[in-house]
Amino acid sequence: MDQTFPWGADQPIPSCPLIEVRGAPRERGRQYGEQAKARILRGIAHYSTQLEGSQLGWPEIGTLVKTFEPTIEAFDAAYLDEMRGIAEGAGVSYEAVVMLNARTEILKLADRRRKGQPAQIDPDGCTGVVAMPEATASGRVIHAQNWDWKAECAETAVVLRVLRDDGPDILTFTEAGGMARSGMNSAGISITANYLESDRDYRQLGVPLALLRRKALEQVQLALAMRIVYCTPKSASNNVMVSHATGVAIDFECAPDETFQIHPERGVIVHANHFQSPIALAKIKDMGIVNTPDSLYRDLRVRALVEPHIGALTREHIKNALFDDFQSPWSVCRPPRPNSSSNLSATVAMVVMEPALGEMEVAMLPALSRRFETYRLDLERHLALA
Q: What is the pTM of this model?
């Protein structure tokens, strides 16, 4: 194993702390920054090293943050306030927190503004699955995902619980300082997202994907969450799976300016990191396969492993499918390995949600450890506030 990766038999796998915040945006941002300070600092240091290696300095990143500000403000000005609060609580720069919430967009746009050797932007891979009530033993939706990214991010991940007085509470697994990634809310909406890349990417300035996911999780109505995913202009392609605890799920393959739908087959949706929609494939060029060729079979593997259990699927069946090590290390569950950019890549976390129960299970570095921690939302609190 690469000696830069310290975890294994002699060192415990990092745990994923729970951060709970409440109050107005600025205040909950401060609470978040104070509680997650060490992990936020570690994340900023990690991306700073990447920026320096690509000859991208903080002055340029600051300029790009200012470029994004009007777009973010038009989408939801409170997010700027919350990110300022995170920066204050953690004692870091506001620009660094915005970078954490728009890391891929900012790195790509910075790359396009400079000359010389292009920056290496790694694909943010994933394999996601949703099982509908008719496919599960409990009659409840199961929504799960493997997050494939930089192995070092096992030390920067958190579960953020946002207690809100003006909408549903939120439980989201994210990088420390991030507003949202995979998660669910107390109104029954859950969301995961997978990397996609197309020939339309970075031709326009869109809303950072972390903020789009957060906005979707702030909704009570599923229709409004889906509208945000479907209609919000984006800088880059992304796949977003949205489900509701009562038994609705749609996978949205998003180009920056157009969205395509994938619906359940036999009550199951599985998606990796390539476009599946025939309409999408007829209209755009999928540019991601060169860096994620294993995507072509990861979704097939997961579907093949869950299909024999359709009608009686449990969380354990879903977990076992996401633990699949076929063609390791180019597998559904990826142990740490160098990627095409020579960075250490791994399945950083497996996230398994059952939104009707308000439960999220997380296993860090699941190719090395199958230990899950459980995090919860108080669904009774949501009903009391409604």
A: 0.94
